[in-house]
Design goal:
The complex is a heterodimer of chains A (about 210) and B (about 260). Chain A is built from nine helices and no strands. By secondary structure, chain A is mainly alpha-helical. The two termini of chain B are about 20 Å apart. Chain B is α/β, with parallel strands linked by helices and about 260 residues long. Classes of the chains: A mainly alpha (about 210), B alpha/beta (about 260). The interface between A and B is medium-sized, with 19 and 29 residues.
Chain lengths: ~210, ~260
């Protein structure tokens, strides 16, 4: 099995990097979109609920179905895959960011308003730091979910570890399936540890 | 004396409420007074002070701060010039005591040395050792200590008016007494106007240089504690005084006629 890996290491290596690229790109774009959407909807409770429900509905659609639906519109390839993954992540990210920010004690906001802080100062000095643990939890969920769903993106030629997994399935090659799975899990594991460390470092600064 | 805060015919009714929270309020609060606003819950006392920093806007009438119509001021700038203390204290848990106190000076872009000096001076004012406390977080302080910090945080940028909404309501009796004594001292040392909402009649008469009685959105009586005690305007005031006050010692010394 290890011999198999070494023999085809170039292929594995490429798929591994492609996968990481898809995940990182997706994540960056997702966070940017989620931040913009959150800032726009945050002052309106009802709109917030509707938006979260809509993204929740989208999140519940199987990814294969969405990929199939979007091929006529966006075509095959990596950008289609990333678009879909970004839309999926909006549910996880927006839900957690708004929950975190709205969960900040109302008396803190009252004190901040009363002291003459404007909306932006309240957001970046009070709400975001206090919502940070929940925001990070949302990002971690999004990472794990993206790593998983990105494998299915191989069905629309987006590359990544999914292509190895699907090849394995088609040719009934157990080595490919096992190695694809291991590498996928490895990315998830590294990402989780990395984000947890980042979170700890950041929380240390604000810890009581 | 010049009026620090003036209400002219102010009306405020919240949607869904059967009666106005503030019903044609006309009121002049002179500079340097410590006015205690007294009344039962729902009488409009909290609404009254939250109109001054424009957390609520009047339906009718005008409010003046040192002669300036507050409607013409930017609410953010207005609030930066008014101290605001709430019962829940609202210290920011992720910031040190220093950073909590420095909040408004930092927004106003004071230089660091000036902020350092101000924080030290304020902590000393409420008998908290600056070296010991400034790097602590709010959760490491007792309730009484936290409200002291809440108080000086509101004073940090030298506001001319301080609004206090039942600041000692959640503090145990012994510490409340101490805080009240400190507040009297702080008020006497500063020449600021304090407006202090409370439902505790003893607190109102102990602290106030003037007491403002409110009922059902109206000002019932506004006078010095002695005058109110001697000449209660209505039976409501009289009964409140009888039920609540337990003797002469609840009036500030030196306030007599």
């Amino acid at each position: 099995m290890i011999a198999y890996f070494i023999k085809y290491s170039d292929k594995f290596y490429n798929a591994f990097w492609e996968h990481i690229q898809i995940v990182v790109m997706t994540l960056l774009i997702s966070i940017i979109f989620a931040s913009i959407i959150t800032i726009l909807i945050l002052p309106y409770k009802k709109v917030t609920n509707i938006v979260i429900q809509l993204f929740g509905a989208v999140y519940s659609i199987p990814s294969l179905a969405i990929f199939a639906l979007l091929i006529p519109v966006l075509g095959l390839g990596r950008s289609t895959a990333i678009s879909v993954l970004v839309v999926y992540n909006q549910f996880l990210l927006i839900r957690n960011i708004t929950a975190g920010i709205n969960g900040v004690d109302a008396s803190l906001i009252e004190a901040a308003v009363g002291m003459g802080m404007d909306r932006w100062q309240i957001l970046y000095k009070i709400q975001i730091p206090l919502a940070f643990p929940l925001i990070m939890a949302g990002i971690r969920l999004a990472v794990i979910s993206t790593i998983g769903i990105a494998t299915i993106a191989a069905t629309i030629n987006a590359g990544g570890l999914g292509s190895i997994l699907f090849e394995g399935l088609r040719t009934v090659n157990v080595y490919k399936i096992i190695w694809g799975t291991i590498l996928c899990a490895l990315i998830a594991f590294i990402a989780d540890i990395g984000l947890k460390t980042l979170e700890k470092l950041a929380v240390k600064k604000v810890e009581i | 004396m010049k009026a620090a805060v003036e209400f002219q015919n102010v009306v405020k009714q919240f949607p869904g409420a059967g009666y106005p929270s503030l019903d044609h309020i006309n009121l002049k609060i002179e500079e340097g007074e410590l006015v205690t606003v007294l009344g039962t819950s729902g009488c409009g006392k909290t609404t009254l002070i939250k109109m001054i920093n424009r957390i609520y806007e009047p339906d009718q009438g005008k409010i003046f701060l040192s002669g300036v119509d507050i409607e013409k001021l930017n609410p953010i700038k207005l609030r930066q010039g008014i101290g605001y203390v709430i019962q829940q204290i609202g210290l920011f848990p992720h910031m040190t005591i220093y950073n909590n106190i420095a909040t408004v000076p930092k927004i106003l872009k004071w230089d660091k040395k000036k902020i350092d000096e101000r924080v030290t001076e304020l902590l000393e004012l409420v008998n908290l050792d600056p070296e010991e406390f400034k790097n602590r977080y709010p959760a490491q302080l007792s309730g009484g200590q936290q409200q002291r910090v809440g108080l000086i945080r509101a004073m940090a940028a030298n506001p001319s008016v301080m609004l206090l909404d039942e600041p000692f309501g959640a503090i145990d009796a012994i510490n409340r007494e101490k805080l009240q004594d400190e507040l009297i001292k702080i008020h006497e040392q500063s020449n600021k106007t304090f407006i202090f909402v409370t439902h505790d009649i003893n607190e109102a008469f102990k602290l106030g240089t003037k007491v403002l009685f409110m009922d059902k959105g109206k000002v019932i009586q506004y006078d010095t504690p002695e005058e109110i005690r001697k000449h209660p305007e209505t039976e409501f005031v009289d009964s409140l005084i009888r039920s609540g006050l337990s003797g002469q010692n609840y009036v500030r010394e030196g306030e007599g006629i």
